[in-house]
Amino acid sequence: MDTALLLWSSVISHTGLFKNIISERYPKFTSALWTNLHRFFGTNLSFSTAYHPQTDGLAERMIQTSEHMIRRFCAYGLEFKDSDGFTHDWCTLIPALELEYKTTVHSSTGQTPAMLEKGCNPRLTADTLRKDLVDIHPKASSFKMTLDKVKYDAKQSIDEAFDYEKQKWDKIHKLPNFKVGDLALASTLNFNNIKGPKNFNILM
Q1: What percent of the chain has a predicted confidence (pLDDT) above 90?
Q2: Cβ-based neighbours of 144, under 8 Å, separated by 6 or more
Q3: Is there a contact between 40 and 34 (Cβ–Cβ < 8 Å)?
Q4: What is the pLDDT of residue 42?
Q5: Facing residues of 184 across strands?
Q6: At CB < 8 A and 24+ separation, what contacts does 174-181 make?
Q7: What is the mean pLDDT of residues 77-97?
Q8: For residue 21, what are the contacts with CB-CB under 8 A and spacing of at least 6?
């Protein structure tokens, strides 16, 4: 029940109900409570395969990219101390990574996830922080420096994750180097009543 309440309070209350949820076969996600709850919501549950998780290609790439981002972000070893002297580590700072990801333009869409979801981009600290202030409380100044550092490291983590995924994709998928005038063979599997030669010129 805790997972259902967390989903409701942290996700659904902000986004509304989902048509489809893709997840691993974690016991809480396959329980009768969870599955019946989403039957009420009208949400379809899709589970990855056991031992070798696979769902759909888009979700798989998103999961892999997220894993690389989080690993790199955690590797920076970020932390800060609050006014009570308590040290906060990456668990506290990881929302900064989420915010940076939501405001990063994706090459596949030409838009940020925030723009596609909300129709606008949120105001960021880099857009609003003033640099001409004096007599600033030391702890406020320290927190501002932490925000700057976290934002920089989050951007680096995202860029590195995107580059890694691109290199992996390019290594497997090599585009043919066609030139205008080259001859090419085209599959006629979905062509109806085609006659004549099966070779075509590259025109553009």
Answers
A1: 4
A2: 125, 129, 136
A3: no
A4: 92
A5: 200
A6: 178/202, 180/204
A7: 74
A8: 38, 43, 44, 45, 46
What domains can you pick out in the chain, each with its CATH number? Answer: 1-53 (3.30.420.10), 56-175 (no CATH)
Q: Which residue has the tokens 């030669």?
A: 197
From the number of C-beta atoms within 10 Å of its C-beta (0-12, 13-18, 19+), residue 162 rates as middle
**How would you write the chain as a 3-class SS string?**
CHHHHHHHHHHHHHHCCCCEEEECCCHHHHCHHHHHHHHHHCCEEEECCCCCCCCCHHHHHHHHHHHHHHHHHHHCCCCEECCCCCEECHHHHHHHHHHHHHCCCCCCCCCCHHHHHHCCCCCCHHHHCCCCCCCCCHHHHHHHHHHHHHHHHHHHHHHHHHHHHHHHHHHHCCCCCCCCCCEEECCCCCCCCCCCCCEEECCC
Kindly report the pTM of this predicted structure.
Answer: 0.64
What tokens were used for 194?
A: 């085609």
Q: What is the pLDDT of residues 72-85, one digit of tens each?
A: 888 877 776 666 67
At 202 the pLDDT is 59
Supply 183's token pair. 């001859």
Query: Sign of the C-alpha dihedral, residues 12, 18, 21, 27?
Result: positive
CB 75 within 8 A of CB 51: no
